[in-house]
Design brief:
By secondary structure, this protein is of the alpha/beta class. The protein contains 16 helices and 9 strands. The chain folds into 2 domains: 220 residues, Spore Coat Polysaccharide Biosynthesis Protein SpsA, Chain A, CATH 3.90.550.10; 94 residues. One of its GO terms (biological process) is protein O-linked glycosylation via N-acetyl-galactosamine.
Length: 376
């Protein structure tokens, strides 16, 4: 009987895994302490690791960029990743061919989805800002079985494990439902505070290229707004918001998110600029202090800088990640050639601080083996 009680107490994990055997009640431990401890160790050891969910929306000529982003996520991440890829139908077969050739099958998985908007307003959403861009607004309504999600634009590169930005979810207070970085650090070059014709979050607005969401909370929340005295749920607020502001918005769905969080500022967790580092942080001089001190964690190559010669520092990192072969030594095949390439970009403002670009990357490469062996 004692042994049976111990078994079920352990199986349900109602007894803390960390409790020393002499702190457990006598009816659980007793003569079966050794057996119970071994059982609990094996039970926890055999549990599947928590998956991190990452979503991206790809249309047009964004396949290569998306695949490069996914590569960067795989290179450094510790816990398994589940990719949710929303793409035009004609891109699906090319995604499958490429992603099925990636190593680590079974640890990292992907699901392809068509681009989907509400039927009655699909045409309006499709033409908002860029093709498919507003798809991200509907992720909480499409991925109803997903509790939390990291959305990123296709032009994102992870220079640090996804695990680390994912950990911000545990730092949310009881009112916070999403996390984003400011649009600008320097108000003198800010866009929203100088040109916006609609409400926006904080002093300079927020950038939605990296957006961490507790989607369960998003689906449950009733949002304050300036259209009605009644609070509206996510699926109720989007279309009325578009109708009211469509002639006043420039950056599409990002503007709508700024309006939502202007009225609900308590719902947003703001993370530092190094988690969404863009050309604006260096092309007029360095203005992301956190990146200067600790390095860049997530690189965001907006304005097409991965594909032209205007910002060669950004392009060099993109090319290095794109061309890296899985399984090769990261120091000799990625970091060292990249540093040589970055030294050739010192004629630009961003290139002058090229060491900021590889500070965290160097640390990530040094830590990746240790973190994976520990599983954290």
């Amino acid at each position: 009987m004692v042994k049976q009680q111990a078994f079920f107490r352990c199986k349900n994990l109602s007894v803390s895994f960390w409790n020393s055997y002499w702190m457990l009640p006598s009816d659980v431990c007793g003569m079966n302490c050794f057996w119970e401890a071994a059982f609990r160790y094996n039970f926890m050891k055999n549990q599947p690791a928590e998956k991190m969910h990452l979503a991206v929306v790809a249309c047009g000529e964004r396949l290569e960029e998306t695949v490069t982003m996914l590569r960067s996520a795989i290179i450094f991440s510790v816990k398994p990743l589940q990719f949710h890829i929303f793409a035009e139908e004609q891109l699906h077969s090319r995604f499958r061919v490429t992603l099925d050739g990636f190593p680590y099958q079974g640890k990292h998985n992907y699901t392809l989805y068509p681009i989907t908007f509400p039927t009655e307003s699909a045409a309006e959403w499709k033409k908002l800002f860029k093709p498919c861009a507003s798809q991200r607004l509907f992720l909480p309504l499409i991925l109803r079985d997903v509790d939390s999600l990291l959305y990123v634009d296709t032009d994102i590169l992870f220079l640090r494990p996804v695990d680390d930005i994912w950990s911000f979810l545990k730092k949310f207070n009881s009112t916070q439902i999403a996390a984003m970085a400011p649009e600008h650090e320097e108000p003198r070059i800010g866009w929203y505070n100088r040109f916006a014709r609609h409400p926006y979050y904080g002093k300079t607005g927020i950038n939605s290229g990296v957006m961490l969401m507790n989607m369960t909370r998003i689906r449950r929340k009733y949002f304050k707004n300036d259209m009605t005295t009644a609070r509206l749920q996510w699926e109720e607020i989007l279309m009325p918001l578009l109708k009211k502001y469509k002639l006043n918005i420039t950056w599409g769905d990002q503007d709508l998110l700024n309006i939502i969080f202007f009225h609900n500022p308590e719902s947003l967790f703001v993370f530092p600029c190094q988690w969404n580092y863009r050309p604006d942080h260096c092309i007029y001089g360095s203005n992301c202090k956190e990146a200067e001190e600790e390095g860049i964690f997530i690189l965001h190559g907006n304005r097409g800088v991965y594909h032209d010669d205007k910002q060669p520092t950004f392009r060099a990192i993109y090319e290095a990640v794109k061309n890296h072969s899985f399984g090769k030594d990261l120091v000799h095949s990625l970091l060292q050639p990249l540093e040589l390439e970055l030294q050739r970009t010192m004629h630009t403002y961003c290139g002058r601080i090229y060491k900021v670009f590889i500070k965290q990357l160097t640390k990530s490469i040094g830590d990746v083996g240790i973190r994976r062996s520990k599983g954290s």
